[in-house]
Write a structure and sequence with these properties.
The chain is α/β, with parallel strands linked by helices. The protein is built from 11 helices and 11 strands. The protein has 2 domains: 54 residues, no CATH class; 269 residues, Rossmann fold. Strand 9 and strand 10 form a beta hairpin. The longest helix is centred in the first third of the chain and has 24 residues. It binds guanosine-5'-triphosphate and magnesium ion. It is found in: Cytoplasm, Cytoskeleton.
Length: 422
């Protein structure tokens, strides 16, 4: 065993020495680094590999085997090829190759793996806000969504601790990890409105908060030396809680949602849906949908942002069942030997994740399992973009207002701003 290891080490040293000697003999002339054939990386990756192969029969055989496997994979993937040449713009020809008539396996599909690995390493951010009248179960529902006590400052080991009334707008961040994927989740819990005698302009602190996050992002983007990854505190989704009155939308909710819907993706929900009968729930949902349409309130997912027919089919189904009638809890109960999240009442347990009891599962699937990335995209491409364009078009806007630091550039051109900073 030790003899074998020694032999392997000797072979490896011999290979390295030979490769080093080759590199030394073929070293580039000074200043010839741009030429590909003299590029040290090229020499290292190409020629070194060649020398290794020459010196190692085992590796040669392995390489041959790999090539054969790759060829086989390519053959099996070959399907009927259609070549489509489109000439939408006169003079501009674009070819679309469908299938895999690529003389073998190229490996484009591996890009997905690369993206997956990168995302897993970097993790991602998701910011969710809950808005609605006081006592509707906002703080409880975010805990239900992420199956942890995320709406508090810290995850306390005291499971029995009661959720207290939210008295100020507070954002709490947690890093949630599931199967190696990290998500920095920020929950923006807002105090319930509607308690005051005069509820005029009660949406202002929330609208202000949303816009402040866009402003923060814009400033970061406009910096000359901007960060590689700009911290994203923008609100990706706002769950709007409607009281289960069984009537119509209240004027305060209409006014609130009208304003909020223009700057952020709103997902309306009927809170404490356990207080409604099945018929009441169906009728109430229908009335709310009519009210939303009549008042021109934009809620997520918006029709105009459907990307294709497939998207439209999925989103139409969601639009038909909005607002979701939800029940929240952070307590677990034993049902048929299984632990389930639920609310224990005198007549039984309302299982939060049971589709027959409420629509919490539909909401969770929309927010986390199917549309999380889309919510982020809509925030960036639609809401933030609208804010950015408006801000940059404001006639009185100047760079000092954005508090841009004009730091010296590395090449000594201190303080010169580019003509188009984005
Ligand atoms: N029946 C019922 N009660 C609920 C539900 N969700 C929460 N509750 C209860 O409602 C009360 C208020 O819940 P919170 O989560 O603090 O409500 P909130 O909207 O955050 O309240 P504020 O912070 O005052 O705005 C608590 O006693 C919860 O247990 C629900 O789905 N159904
Ligand atoms: Mg609260």
């Amino acid at each position: 065993m030790s003899n074998q290891l020694g032999l392997q080490a000797f072979k490896r040293t011999r290979r390295l020495f030979a490769a080093g000697l080759y590199l030394f003999l073929h070293r580039p002339a000074p200043g010839h680094y741009c030429d590909h054939s003299y590029c040290p990386t090229y020499l290292y990756s190409g020629n070194l590999r060649l020398w290794y192969t020459l010196f190692s029969n085992e590796e040669k055989q392995q390489k041959q085997q790999e090539e054969e496997d790759e060829e086989e994979r390519g053959m099996s993937k070959q399907v009927e090829v259609t070549m489509e040449v489109s000439e939408r713009v006169p003079g501009l020809t674009a070819g679309v190759i469908r299938g895999a008539d690529l003389f073998g396996y190229v490996g484009i599909e591996a890009v997905l793996d690369q993206m997956r690995r990168k995302t897993m390493k970097a993790g991602f951010e998701f910011n969710i806000m809950v808005v609605g009248q006081s006592g509707l179960g906002k703080s409880t529902l975010v805990n239900t969504l992420f199956k942890s006590k995320v709406s508090r400052k810290s995850c306390t080991p005291n499971y029995e601790e009661k959720i207290s009334k939210t008295v100020k707008l507070q954002s709490v961040s947690h890093v949630i990890e599931e199967k190696g994927v990290k998500m920095k989740l920020t929950v923006i819990d807002t105090p319930g409105f509607g308690d005051q005698i005069n509820n005029e302009n009660c949406w202002e602190p929330i609208v202000k908060y949303v816009n402040e996050q866009y402003e923060k992002y814009l400033k970061e983007e406009l910096h000359v030396n901007r960060k590689r990854r700009i911290p994203d505190t923008r609100v990706h989704c706002c769950i709007y809680f409607l009281p289960a009155t069984g009537h119509w939308l209240r004027p305060i909710d209409i006014e609130f949602m009208k304003r909020l819907g223009k700057i952020v993706s709103i997902v309306p929900v009927i809170a404490k849906a356990d207080t409604l009968t099945i018929e009441e729930r169906l009728e109430f949902k229908q009335r709310i949908r009519q009210d939303l349409a009549a008042n021109g309130i934009r809620v997520y997912p918006q029709k105009e942002y459907d990307e294709d027919a497939e998207d439209r089919i999925v989103n139409d189904r969601i639009r038909e069942s909005i607002p979701f009638a939800v029940v929240g809890t952070d307590k677990e109960h034993q049902v048929n030997g299984n632990k389930v999240l639920g609310r224990k009442t005198k007549w039984g347990i309302i299982e939060v994740e049971n589709a027959a009891h409420c629509e919490f599962a539909n909401l969770r699937d929309l927010l986390i399992r199917s549309h999380l990335q889309d919510l982020k995209d809509v925030t960036h491409n639609i809401h933030y973009e609208t804010y950015r364009v408006r801000r940059l078009n404001e006639s009185n806007m100047n760079f000092s207002e954005l508090e841009l630091s004009i730091r010296p550039l590395e090449n000594g051109n201190a303080g010169k701003l580019p003509l188009f900073p984005f």
